[in-house]
Design a protein that fits this description.
Layout lengths: L2 E7 L104 H7 L5 E7 L14 H6 L10 E2 L103 H12 L3 E3 L15 E3 L9 E3 L3 E3 L2 H7 L4 E4 L14 E2 L21 E3 L4 E3 L6 E3 L21 H4 L2 E5 L15 E7 L2 H5 L2 H12 L15 E7 L3 E5 L8 E5 L15 E2 L4 H14 L11 H14 L3 E7 L36 H10 L2 E7 L7 H4 L1 H5 L4 E3 L5 H17 L2 E11 L3 E7 L10 E7 L4 E7 L9 E10 L5 E13 L2 H6 L3 H15 L5 H22 L9 E4 L5 H9 L12 H12 L3 H8 L2 E4 L26 E5 L3 E6 L5 H8 L20 H14 L7 E6 L5 H5 L14 H16 L1
Parallel strand pairs: 4-5, 7-27, 9-13, 14-15, 14-19, 19-20, 20-21, 31-32
Antiparallel strand pairs: 1-2, 1-28, 2-3, 6-8, 8-25, 10-11, 11-12, 13-27, 15-16, 15-18, 16-17, 22-24, 22-26, 23-25, 26-27, 29-30, 30-31
Length: 1033
């Protein structure tokens, strides 16, 4: 069985300031003595750190600290490595990160000097794809590293079966460089040609950024050691067919560079298109354990035949390693991204509801797993063996059924819980609070009526819209009208409760001025049925903007507003959701009062993490109380300046709510985006007062959870509410061996209250394979899920670790995963070749996108609030949303076929793909940009904007005009399709080429070098390759 691999041959011409790599240990599996480290702190670890790859320093760089060099070589054998602790762990589990070694250089490939950029542009100049057999690399690949590194990469030996593909992209000779002599020509591993063809230069190749301070433009670098002796770890790389260590070229003008053909490195677009071509539009059945689903970007129909649909659960790998040693060796996180309430297309079967009456669901006596397809019936059907803990249980008399000739129950296909991966149970009173049925939930609308919100028309807009959306409150399928009750509060520095009882002629207002101890001034008439009180509610919504029209109060409170809503739900003894419409920093004297602490001086320092932490300790216990009473908080923010999203957003995050943010909101421009979000949020599928438990078969367990959740203990994931867009990412660790026969089984059970007030259990089951071969693990990986996991674990760590350390760890772990594959699964090849597993060939480009995100890399145009906001959004994203967020869709619009309904093919996110004659649409799930080239076709401009030329286009508009022509209709349809199924309404920005706002747009061209730091895809690939070579040597 041959293993696909992606091969590149970068001729490294120089050392790049790199990331000190340490011997591979896996987070928690390091030295047990670290478990006592204080939360959020790293233990100091003597003289760790690696020499910069190649041990060479560019001229003009500040010298490294003394610990970088000396007798330690590339891998310092210092004390054991420190682990990566997050917040005080709620469990004894391992953190998700490999340890790091501090180095004085930035871990993230720094913007390099001009000469280095030109050279990096050539470093991948010869690429070819090999489909590799799973052979162990021979030990003669270089001097052995330190024992720890060597031990970490031992794996099963397989016989090599190389089969070589020569794709269309040309094989280019590298340029003459200081290290490989003139014209060393890289060759594929098993052929010896020297007929390389020059490839075309990318359109923007001539652009060179200026050197940074302290960097020189000199052509040569001081050589530490010539190529005469044995190769140094991580130093100069050998080239197949290259010059055997010619003399270094030290002086003279830089040689003319041959530029890299960007089409020769793995393309996310190609990977997505290939999967669509092979699996799109088909039926995917879930009857096989451990099968790999179509990519999240591929449309197909999913048929549940015993394992949960990938819409509900996706995994980082669908084959777990049998032992924790293998897991440590590969360092591939074992995780599942669970979206329990995911939306199912209309052509797929909704979940069946199983009702066992007062006896409730059948469960294993020992581990409490619910009846599912993994239970094995024995003794003629009288008993069953649990698939999770192997306990043998009696079948309850009411549930007995005879078995057929293969030991399967005769009613197997009649019972969803025996034949399907996902289904629901009606829960009995034992599963309800205080053992009594819950009341139907309530929605409470809380409007900030401070001066600015009244003046800019926001309050009037909200009140008008509520009249419409209240008609569309969610209801159970069979209900005539919604069972949800509604209530209304307005506030500035005091709170106003409204009595909207249906018997009243007009609404009554009650004011609560004591915001330090909020109480609910009325019970009867506060939460009402919309249908019964419709006229009173409409009367109130008409009055609110007038009532506060003369108010000049601009100070607001915030925590007391949440407290009031929660107390109202508690008094009514029902779960529910608060919709808070708020716009400023809460500076009025009250609990949760905040001050402006936005400090640019903290950027790029170890104290930067403070900006992501809440400013006061009021909000965390408040969130805990909300979860305890089933009160979910969704916050619509309309800031015109700093509002401290890190503090205000904490309660929405911990209660399973959503945070929406509209900067500098203007009613005439931004109301459509806000109204779409509000409608979508009110109508979406949601479960209240939820608690989730993830059970696993023996040998491994869930250790870490990421999402819009609260955890009081190590196993119960509590959510005041969970909706169809929220995902919880769960990490697993071994606690014993797994067997290839029984595999790894996961059962996710969510107990929740429906919108009609029924208590239910939603069950999702998934079986994964297990293997003692590393190649099987790599073959079954899903890159999109890996990036979701890495993003969430990094964004969680942001609260406690310096960003530089987090970036370092991410690069480190990427290199470890790929080095382990190279060493144990790929067939032998030259050290200068970069080999990527087929399932991970776009991992580097996605990882680089994560490293460049504004959360992990500060940049001038991203405010502190924006960074905290994006951090919070990603924490609850499912795989489809995180995929689009980190690698946006870029589509050419000028090539539109107006007769077709198919979307124009996406292109890679790079400036080199844009053209002056073109119009391009870019979307990442939060923003949408329409980029207009300076020479855009006038007929297109006329068709889309109804103006004669590029110069006449008004870039302030946020909605395209509705024109009757085919261009306009087709473009609007395309935008509608891209917006569909996305949790946030994307605001449209019109961008003209060569005008100032283009700077913001360019940040989304993620394959290019960042304007304020952050590598290009090519540079990052080189950086990772260099790390891999260091690890292997």
């Amino acid at each position: 069985m041959s293993q696909q691999g992606y091969v590149a041959t970068p001729p490294y011409s120089q050392s790049q300031p790199g990331i000190g790599l340490s011997p591979p240990h896996y987070g928690h599996y390091g030295d047990p003595s670290h478990t006592g480290s204080p939360p959020g702190m790293m233990k100091p670890a003597g003289p760790l750190g690696a020499a910069a790859p190649g041990g060479m320093l560019p001229q003009g760089h500040p010298p490294h600290g003394p610990h970088q060099f000396g007798q330690n070589g590339a891998h310092a054998q210092g004390p054991p490595l420190q682990r990566f602790p997050g917040p005080p762990p709620v469990n004894s589990a391992a953190p998700s990160y490999a340890p790091y070694s501090p180095s004085t250089q930035s871990s993230y490939p720094s913007p390099v000097s001009t000469s280095s950029v030109a050279q990096l542009g050539t470093q991948l100049s010869a690429m070819h794809v090999n489909s590799y057999g799973t052979g162990m690399a021979p030990p003669s690949q270089g001097p052995p590293g330190p024992p720890s590194a060597a031990a970490a990469f031992q794996g099963p030996s397989r016989s090599p079966q190389p089969s070589i593909l020569q794709p269309g992209s040309q094989v280019l000779p590298p340029p003459p460089t200081a290290l490989n002599g003139p014209g060393a020509s890289p060759l594929p591993p098993s052929t010896h040609r020297q007929d390389g063809l020059p490839g075309p230069a990318p359109p923007n190749a001539q652009y060179q950024p200026p050197p940074l301070p302290g960097q020189t433009l000199g052509p040569g670098y001081p050589l530490q050691q010539a190529n005469y002796g044995p190769q140094m770890a991580g130093a100069q790389l050998s080239y197949p067919g290259g010059f055997p260590g010619g003399p270094a070229q030290m002086a003279g003008p830089p040689q003319p560079q041959k530029k890299l053909d960007p089409d020769s490195i793995p393309s996310p677009i190609q990977v997505i298109e290939n999967d669509r071509a092979t699996r799109g539009g088909q039926v995917y059945t879930t009857n096989t354990r451990g099968q790999i689903p179509p990519l999240v970007t591929t449309d197909c129909t999913i048929q549940d035949q015993g394992n949960a649909s990938p819409r509900y659960i996706r995994c980082t790998t669908y084959c777990f390693p049998c032992t924790s040693d293998m897991a440590k060796q590969a360092q591939i996180p074992l995780a599942a991204i669970i979206k329990p309430f995911a939306t199912i297309p209309s052509n797929e079967t909704p979940l069946y509801l199983v009702n066992h009456g007062e006896t409730g669901p059948v469960r294993c006596n020992r581990c409490k797993a619910y009846m599912c397809p993994f239970m094995q019936f024995i003794e003629g059907g009288r008993r069953y063996q649990c698939g999770f803990c192997s306990c043998v249980n009696d079948v309850p008399p009411f549930y007995f059924q005879h078995l057929d000739h293969i030991g399967r129950r005769l009613d197997h296909y009649e019972k969803p819980e025996l034949s399907l991966g996902s289904y629901e149970y009606v829960a009995t009173l034992d599963y309800c609070r205080k053992n009594k049925p819950p009341n139907p939930p309530a929605f409470i609308f809380m409007i900030d009526v401070s001066y600015s919100n009244i003046k800019n028309g926001l309050v009037k807009l909200i009140c008008e819209e509520l009249k419409t959306v209240l008609e569309k409150l969610p209801k159970e399928g069979q209900e005539e009208t919604s069972s949800l009750r509604v209530g209304f509060i307005t506030y500035n520095k005091v709170l106003h409760f409204f009595n909207v009882k249906s018997t009243l002629a007009r609404p009554q207002m009650m004011v609560v001025t004591d915001v330090s101890e909020v109480f609910v001034p009325l019970l009867d008439g506060f939460l009402v049925s919309y249908q019964e009180s419709q006229s009173v509610i409409h009367n109130l919504l008409d009055q609110i903007p007038e009532m506060f029209a003369d108010s000049n109060e601009n100070e607001t409170v915030f925590a007391p507003v949440i407290r009031a809503g929660m107390e109202a739900l508690k008094a009514a003894d029902c779960p529910g959701k608060l919709f808070i419409f708020h716009s400023s920093l809460p500076t009025a004297e009250a609990p949760g009062k905040l001050k402006n602490r936005d400090d640019k001086k903290l950027m790029n320092t170890d104290k930067e993490k403070i900006l992501f932490q809440p400013q006061t300790n009021v909000y965390d216990p408040l969130a805990k109380d909300c979860v305890a009473h089933g009160c979910c908080v969704t916050l619509f923010l309309f800031p015109s300046q700093y509002v401290d999203v890190a503090s205000l957003g904490l309660v929405p995050q911990l209660t399973g709510g959503t945070l929406y943010k509209y900067n500098n909101f203007q009613v005439h421009l931004d109301s459509q985006q806000f109204l779409n979000d509000l409608r979508n949020d009110i109508e979406k599928k949601i479960g209240f007062d939820a608690i989730m438990r993830v059970r696993t078969s023996t040998g491994f367990r869930a250790t870490d959870f990421f999402g819009g959740i609260y955890m009081n203990n190590t196993t119960d994931v509590e959510m005041a509410a969970i909706d169809c867009d929220k995902a919880v990412t769960v990490e697993f660790k071994h606690d014993d061996k797994l067997s290839e026969d029984s595999g790894a089984l996961i059962q996710c059970a969510v107990l929740y209250t429906t919108v009609s007030g029924q208590r239910r259990l939603r069950i999702h089951n998934l079986g994964l394979n297990c293997s003692s071969q590393l190649a099987d693990l790599y073959k079954s990986c899903e890159t999109d899920a890996l990036i979701n996991f890495f993003a969430k674990s990094a964004f969680k760590a942001v609260l406690h670790q310096p960003l530089k350390v987090i970036r370092e760890i991410l690069v480190n772990q990427t290199a470890h995963m790929l080095a382990c594959y190279r060493k144990n699964c790929a067939s032998p090849s030259a050290a200068s070749q970069l080999i990527l597993p087929d399932s991970m060939k776009v991992l580097p480009v996605y990882m680089n996108c994560l490293l460049k995100s504004c959360v992990l890399l500060s940049r001038p145009e991203s405010s502190t609030d924006e960074r905290a906001y994006q951090r919070q959004l990603v924490m609850t994203m499912g795989v489809a949303d995180s995929q689009l967020f980190f690698y946006p869709q870029l589509r050419p619009i000028h090539t539109l076929d107006v007769k077709s309904t198919t979307l124009p093919a996406a292109i890679r996110c790079s400036e080199s793909r844009l053209s002056e004659e073109g119009i391009f649409l870019l979307a990442n799930g939060l923003n949408m940009f329409l980029w207009l080239g300076v020479s855009s076709p006038p007929e297109l401009i006329q068709g889309i904007f109804n103006v004669p030329s590029f110069a006449h286009v008004n870039t302030d508009i946020t909605l395209l005009p509705e024109l009757g022509n085919p261009y306009s209709q087709t473009l609007r349809m395309i935008m509608g399709i891209i917006q569909q199924k996305r949790p946030y309404s994307m605001k449209l920005t019109i961008v003209k080429q060569r005008e100032q706002p283009e700077m913001v747009f360019r940040q989304f061209l993620v394959e290019d070098k960042g304007l304020y730091g952050g590598s290009s895809y090519v540079d990052f690939l080189c950086c990772v390759h260099k790390e891999i070579c260091q690890l292997l040597n």
